[in-house]
Amino acid sequence: EYDVDDLLPAMAAGLSHDGTLYAAPFYGESSMVMYRTDLMEKAGLEMPEAPTWEFIREAAAAMTDRDNEINGICLRGKAGWGEGGAFITVTANSFGARWFDEDWNAQFDQPEWKNALEFFVGMMSESGPPGYATNGFNENLSLFQQGKCGMWIDATVAASFVTNPNDSTVADKVGFALAPDTGMGKRSNWLWAWALAIPAGTQKLDAAKAFIEWATSKDYIELVAAKEGWANVPPGARTSLYANPEYQKVPFAKMTLDSINAADPTNPTVKPVPYVGIQFVAIPEFAGIATEVSQEFSAAYAGQQSIDEALAKAQALTNDAMEAAGYR
Q1: Is 155 exposed, middle or buried (0-12, 13-18, 19+ CB in 10 A)?
Q2: Domain pair 4-24+204-261 / 31-190+266-317, same fold
Q3: What pLDDT digit, counting tens, does each position of 40-54 carry?
Q4: Measured between alpha carbons, how far is 266 from 92 in angstroms, rounded to an integer?
Q5: What is the pLDDT of residues 223-253, one digit of tens each?
Q6: Domain segments of the chain: what residues?
Q7: Are 53 and 119 a contacting pair, CB within 8 Å?
Q8: Where are the alpha helices (DSSP H) in the chain?
Q9: From CA 83, how far away is CA 76, in angstroms rounded?
């Protein structure tokens, strides 16, 4: 019996339209802080369960040790809407920024975006790794596993990688916290579901449906747990997983669920917006626009242009694209 009511509400809602589920989540994720407990202790600080960006910046500076190649913080700066673009969007959300106002006008000329970018670049210049403008998920994962990051804010699914002693040199020294905020009511975490769906024209409907039912089922989770251990099961899709006493022993289980529950794609920003989505805007044009915007931001991170220049270009190209698409 496929228990559709067991799907986490946040994941089911993101894959539904008018109450109908159009895809089944294989796993889901938010984002959170992963940090070195030993370096935090050495710095004389204690990570709050719900930190502010100011604390993160302070802790990053305190944990940075250039002589020993330890960067206080590792974050995505790589161009791409789903790489650095996703990260700076959720960061900006927490600073009160938004992609568009209610009339689909770009908002990169507003002070919230400048505040977010200046904070990000300042913190990364102080405490980030060299060349962070070209680092994405995989590069930062490698740095963290090698013991070269004090903190990493990224996908909750990465928790199982950084705590795996087969891959991570710091597996027994990792703690977790909610993504930071600025006190404005929005945290800098995203929501994303990796899901399976069936194209309308398929010739193999029954086989496809049977596979999806199996691959997203409770039985599949039990199978992975038996073979790979509970820490490595697909997270973030089913409510029952987080009620399982065995999974509750996994050190990052509760924070992953809390992070997912803290994300609201229907109300992603401090000010009202006409779109759904936290680290993205759910319109067909977004991937192309946001990739171009992220390229301008990455150029600013790399010192190839100023933050003001990057924001001005982002404002112009976004408004041009939205006008061409008929939104304005």
Answers
A1: buried
A2: yes
A3: 999 999 999 999 999
A4: 17
A5: 999 999 999 999 999 999 999 999 999 999 9
A6: 4-24+204-261, 31-190+266-317
A7: yes
A8: 9-14, 37-42, 53-63, 84-94, 111-127, 137-145, 159-162, 205-215, 218-228, 239-243, 245-248, 253-261, 286-301, 307-324
A9: 7
pTM of the model: 0.95
pLDDT of 324 > 80? The answer is yes
Smallest CA-to-CA distance from 317 within 91, 138, 108 is with 108
Phi, psi of 101 (to 5 degrees): -85, -175
Tokens of 216: 């997203």
The CATH number fitting domain 31-190+266-317, selected from 3.30.450.40, 1.20.1300.10, 3.40.190.10, 3.20.10.10:
3.40.190.10
The answer to whether 194 touches 27, Cβ cutoff 8 Å, is yes
**Distance between CA atoms of residues 155 and 252, nearest Å:** 12
Q: Around 285, how many Cα atoms within 13 Å sit in the side-chain half-sphere?
A: 16
What single-letter amino acid sits at 155? A
CA distance 60 to 66: 12
Question: What is the rounded distance in angstroms from the CA atom of residue 39 to the CA atom of residue 54?
Answer: 18
Please give the structure tokens belonging to residue 299. 């150029």
Fold of domain 4-24+204-261? D-Maltodextrin-Binding Protein; domain 2 (3.40.190)
Place of tokens 């935090």: 40
